[in-house]
Amino acid sequence: RLRARYILLRPGETTFEAAGMVDSNPINKQAALRGLTEQGREQVRAAAEALAARGVTSPVIFYDNGARASQTADILANSLSVPRRDVEPEFRWLEARGLGALDGTDLQAATEYLHRIDAADVESAAEEAEDGTPSDSVNDVFGRMRNTIAKIETSYGGGDFVIIGGDAAVLSVFAAAACGTDLRDHGRFTLPPG
After folding, report:
1. Residue 134: which region, alpha, beta or left (left: phi > 0; alpha: psi -120 to 50)?
2. Which of 120, 127, 171, 175 is the Cys-Cys partner for 189 at CB 3.0 to 4.6 Å?
3. Rounded mean pLDDT of 2-8?
Protein backbone atom coordinates (compact mmCIF):
# COMPACT_ATOMS: atom_id res chain seq x y z
CA ARG A 1 0.00 0.00 0.00
CA LEU A 2 1.33 3.43 -0.94
CA ARG A 3 1.62 6.11 1.73
CA ALA A 4 1.73 9.08 -0.64
CA ARG A 5 -0.94 10.39 -2.98
CA TYR A 6 0.34 10.51 -6.55
CA ILE A 7 -0.88 13.01 -9.11
CA LEU A 8 0.34 12.29 -12.62
CA LEU A 9 0.89 15.27 -14.89
CA ARG A 10 2.37 15.03 -18.31
CA PRO A 11 4.14 18.05 -19.78
CA GLY A 12 2.09 20.55 -21.72
CA GLU A 13 2.18 20.45 -25.51
CA THR A 14 5.75 20.46 -26.82
CA THR A 15 7.22 21.83 -30.01
CA PHE A 16 7.71 18.33 -31.37
CA GLU A 17 4.16 17.27 -30.49
CA ALA A 18 2.82 20.36 -32.24
CA ALA A 19 4.86 19.35 -35.30
CA GLY A 20 3.55 15.76 -35.06
CA MET A 21 7.01 14.21 -34.57
CA VAL A 22 8.42 11.64 -32.15
CA ASP A 23 11.02 13.12 -29.79
CA SER A 24 12.59 10.51 -27.51
CA ASN A 25 16.37 10.81 -27.80
CA PRO A 26 17.60 11.65 -24.27
CA ILE A 27 20.75 13.27 -25.62
CA ASN A 28 18.62 16.18 -26.84
CA LYS A 29 16.12 16.31 -24.00
CA GLN A 30 17.49 19.47 -22.40
CA ALA A 31 17.53 21.49 -25.62
CA ALA A 32 15.25 24.52 -25.26
CA LEU A 33 13.73 23.91 -28.69
CA ARG A 34 12.21 20.72 -27.27
CA GLY A 35 10.27 22.65 -24.67
CA LEU A 36 6.68 23.77 -24.39
CA THR A 37 4.67 25.72 -26.91
CA GLU A 38 2.61 28.67 -25.70
CA GLN A 39 -0.43 26.39 -25.75
CA GLY A 40 1.56 23.92 -23.63
CA ARG A 41 2.30 26.65 -21.09
CA GLU A 42 -1.40 27.52 -20.91
CA GLN A 43 -2.27 23.84 -20.41
CA VAL A 44 0.07 23.66 -17.41
CA ARG A 45 -1.35 26.85 -15.89
CA ALA A 46 -4.86 25.38 -16.29
CA ALA A 47 -3.70 22.14 -14.65
CA ALA A 48 -2.29 24.15 -11.73
CA GLU A 49 -5.65 25.90 -11.30
CA ALA A 50 -7.44 22.54 -11.36
CA LEU A 51 -5.08 21.12 -8.74
CA ALA A 52 -5.53 24.15 -6.48
CA ALA A 53 -9.32 23.84 -6.84
CA ARG A 54 -9.01 20.25 -5.59
CA GLY A 55 -6.98 21.30 -2.57
CA VAL A 56 -3.54 20.34 -3.90
CA THR A 57 -1.63 23.44 -2.85
CA SER A 58 1.72 22.29 -1.50
CA PRO A 59 2.81 19.09 -3.28
CA VAL A 60 6.32 17.84 -3.78
CA ILE A 61 7.01 17.86 -7.51
CA PHE A 62 9.18 15.13 -9.05
CA TYR A 63 10.00 15.68 -12.70
CA ASP A 64 12.17 14.45 -15.54
CA ASN A 65 15.01 16.92 -16.02
CA GLY A 66 14.38 17.37 -19.76
CA ALA A 67 13.21 20.74 -21.11
CA ARG A 68 9.52 19.86 -21.45
CA ALA A 69 9.12 18.42 -17.95
CA SER A 70 11.41 21.07 -16.37
CA GLN A 71 9.35 23.88 -17.89
CA THR A 72 6.15 22.16 -16.77
CA ALA A 73 7.51 21.79 -13.22
CA ASP A 74 8.59 25.45 -13.11
CA ILE A 75 5.18 26.72 -14.23
CA LEU A 76 3.38 24.42 -11.81
CA ALA A 77 5.65 25.36 -8.89
CA ASN A 78 5.27 29.08 -9.60
CA SER A 79 1.49 28.80 -9.97
CA LEU A 80 1.10 26.87 -6.69
CA SER A 81 3.90 28.75 -4.83
CA VAL A 82 5.75 25.49 -4.18
CA PRO A 83 9.16 26.22 -2.60
CA ARG A 84 12.21 25.22 -4.65
CA ARG A 85 13.21 22.60 -2.05
CA ASP A 86 10.03 20.69 -2.95
CA VAL A 87 10.71 20.64 -6.70
CA GLU A 88 12.99 17.69 -7.39
CA PRO A 89 14.49 16.67 -10.72
CA GLU A 90 14.84 13.01 -11.56
CA PHE A 91 17.67 12.41 -14.00
CA ARG A 92 16.80 9.04 -15.55
CA TRP A 93 13.82 7.24 -14.07
CA LEU A 94 11.14 9.64 -15.36
CA GLU A 95 12.74 10.06 -18.78
CA ALA A 96 10.55 9.66 -21.86
CA ARG A 97 10.22 6.16 -23.25
CA GLY A 98 13.05 5.63 -25.71
CA LEU A 99 11.57 4.86 -29.11
CA GLY A 100 14.73 3.90 -30.97
CA ALA A 101 14.39 4.09 -34.76
CA LEU A 102 10.97 5.76 -34.39
CA ASP A 103 12.63 8.95 -33.12
CA GLY A 104 11.96 11.80 -35.57
CA THR A 105 9.13 9.95 -37.33
CA ASP A 106 5.39 10.70 -37.50
CA LEU A 107 3.95 10.80 -33.97
CA GLN A 108 0.51 9.39 -34.81
CA ALA A 109 1.88 6.44 -36.80
CA ALA A 110 4.45 5.68 -34.09
CA THR A 111 1.77 5.81 -31.38
CA GLU A 112 -0.44 3.35 -33.28
CA TYR A 113 2.53 1.02 -33.82
CA LEU A 114 3.46 1.13 -30.14
CA HIS A 115 -0.10 0.34 -29.04
CA ARG A 116 0.00 -2.76 -31.23
CA ILE A 117 3.36 -4.07 -30.02
CA ASP A 118 2.65 -3.17 -26.37
CA ALA A 119 -0.66 -5.04 -26.49
CA ALA A 120 1.20 -8.12 -27.69
CA ASP A 121 4.04 -8.18 -25.16
CA VAL A 122 5.38 -5.85 -22.43
CA GLU A 123 8.91 -6.80 -23.50
CA SER A 124 8.40 -5.49 -27.06
CA ALA A 125 10.28 -2.39 -28.10
CA ALA A 126 10.76 -0.37 -31.25
CA GLU A 127 13.69 -1.25 -33.47
CA GLU A 128 17.09 -0.05 -32.26
CA ALA A 129 18.35 3.25 -33.67
CA GLU A 130 21.73 3.75 -35.29
CA ASP A 131 22.20 7.05 -33.47
CA GLY A 132 22.00 5.47 -30.02
CA THR A 133 18.44 6.54 -29.17
CA PRO A 134 17.36 3.91 -26.62
CA SER A 135 14.50 1.58 -27.38
CA ASP A 136 12.48 0.88 -24.23
CA SER A 137 9.81 -1.72 -23.65
CA VAL A 138 6.85 -1.17 -21.35
CA ASN A 139 8.64 -3.35 -18.81
CA ASP A 140 11.72 -1.09 -18.99
CA VAL A 141 9.53 1.95 -18.28
CA PHE A 142 7.76 0.10 -15.45
CA GLY A 143 11.09 -0.70 -13.79
CA ARG A 144 12.10 2.96 -13.86
CA MET A 145 8.75 4.10 -12.46
CA ARG A 146 8.94 1.49 -9.71
CA ASN A 147 12.33 2.93 -8.70
CA THR A 148 10.87 6.45 -8.55
CA ILE A 149 7.96 5.38 -6.37
CA ALA A 150 10.23 3.33 -4.10
CA LYS A 151 12.45 6.38 -3.63
CA ILE A 152 9.47 8.55 -2.69
CA GLU A 153 7.87 5.95 -0.44
CA THR A 154 11.09 5.34 1.52
CA SER A 155 12.17 9.00 1.72
CA TYR A 156 8.89 10.68 2.63
CA GLY A 157 6.15 9.92 5.12
CA GLY A 158 3.29 10.61 2.74
CA GLY A 159 1.69 13.71 1.28
CA ASP A 160 0.90 14.86 -2.23
CA PHE A 161 3.38 14.19 -5.03
CA VAL A 162 3.04 15.46 -8.55
CA ILE A 163 4.95 13.25 -10.96
CA ILE A 164 5.85 14.87 -14.28
CA GLY A 165 7.18 12.26 -16.65
CA GLY A 166 9.14 12.89 -19.80
CA ASP A 167 6.17 11.73 -21.87
CA ALA A 168 2.70 10.21 -21.65
CA ALA A 169 3.99 6.61 -21.83
CA VAL A 170 5.88 6.89 -18.54
CA LEU A 171 2.74 8.04 -16.76
CA SER A 172 0.35 5.63 -18.48
CA VAL A 173 2.49 2.68 -17.40
CA PHE A 174 2.43 3.92 -13.79
CA ALA A 175 -1.34 4.50 -13.93
CA ALA A 176 -1.96 1.01 -15.30
CA ALA A 177 0.20 -0.57 -12.58
CA ALA A 178 -1.42 1.50 -9.82
CA CYS A 179 -4.90 0.47 -11.02
CA GLY A 180 -3.95 -3.21 -11.26
CA THR A 181 -4.44 -3.20 -15.04
CA ASP A 182 -2.41 -5.46 -17.31
CA LEU A 183 0.55 -3.36 -18.47
CA ARG A 184 -0.13 -4.40 -22.06
CA ASP A 185 -3.21 -2.18 -21.85
CA HIS A 186 -1.41 0.90 -20.47
CA GLY A 187 -2.35 2.95 -23.55
CA ARG A 188 -5.88 3.44 -22.25
CA PHE A 189 -4.41 5.59 -19.47
CA THR A 190 -2.65 8.01 -21.84
CA LEU A 191 -3.08 11.53 -20.57
CA PRO A 192 -3.61 14.61 -22.73
CA PRO A 193 -0.92 17.33 -22.49
CA GLY A 194 -0.97 19.38 -19.28
Report:
1. beta
2. 175
3. 93
